[in-house]
């Protein structure tokens, strides 16, 4: 179980060529256990076949790597090397009561916001 006192989170951004960055997932790191939790959009709306192939494998690849070398190493590697199609935000401390599901809903999954806007006639 993650504790807010020991966790940091990052937003994973998808930056398709010629398009603005879009939130595509959340990475949650527990610094005490070095455990990495990942929640990514299951599908993305991108035409580029290479980007689609990378997206299909990235969550499993990151989880496998985190199990091998630790979550902190994976986060540091992403911070150092992700700079084109996949980027990460700065680290943020997890607020009390937040978990990966809440972070994902707030930062990535805007469908509930879109549904609310439609219901309000916006």
How would you describe this structure to a colleague?
The chain has 122 residues and is of the alpha+beta class. Helix content is 40%, strand content 23%. It has four helices and five strands; from the N terminus they run βββααββαα. Strands 1, 2, 3, 4 and 5 form a five-stranded antiparallel β-sheet that branches. The model is unreliable at 112-120 (pLDDT under 50).
What is the share of helical residues?
A: 40-55%
Tell me the structural class: alpha+beta
Integer count of domains: 1
Strand runs, count: 5
Using only C-alpha atoms, the radius of gyration works out to: 15 Å
- Range of strand content: 15-25%
Q: Tell me the major beta sheet.
A: 5 strands, antiparallel
Separation of the first and last Cα atoms: 39 Å
Number of helical segments with 4 or more residues? 4
Topology order in helix (H) and strand (E) letters: EEEHHEEHH
* Low-pLDDT segments: 112-120
What keywords describe this structure?
122 residues; alpha+beta; 5 strands; disordered C terminus
Give a quick rundown of the structure.
By secondary structure, the chain is an alpha+beta fold. It has helices at about 50-70, 70-80, 100-105, 110-120; strands spanning about 5-15, 20-30, 35-40, 85-90, 90-95.
Question: Which helices and strands, and how do they pair?
Answer:
Blueprint: E1 7-14, E2 22-30, E3 35-40, H1 49-69, H2 71-81, E4 86-88, E5 92-93, H3 100-107, H4 111-119
Antiparallel strand pairs: 1-2, 1-4, 1-5, 2-3
Helix pairs in contact: 1-2
């Amino acid at each position: 179980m993650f504790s807010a006192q020991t966790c940091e989170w990052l937003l994973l951004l998808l930056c398709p060529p010629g398009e603005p960055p879009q939130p595509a997932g959340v990475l949650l790191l527990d610094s005490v256990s070095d455990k990495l939790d990942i929640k990514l959009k299951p599908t993305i709306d991108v035409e580029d076949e290479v980007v689609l192939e990378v997206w299909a494998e990235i969550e499993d690849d990151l989880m496998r790597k985190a199990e091998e070398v630790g979550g902190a190493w994976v986060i540091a590697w992403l911070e150092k090397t992700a700079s084109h199609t996949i980027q990460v935000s700065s680290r943020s401390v997890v607020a009390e009561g937040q978990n990966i599901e809440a972070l994902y809903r707030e930062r990535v999954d805007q469908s509930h916001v879109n549904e609310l806007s439609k219901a309000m006639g916006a």
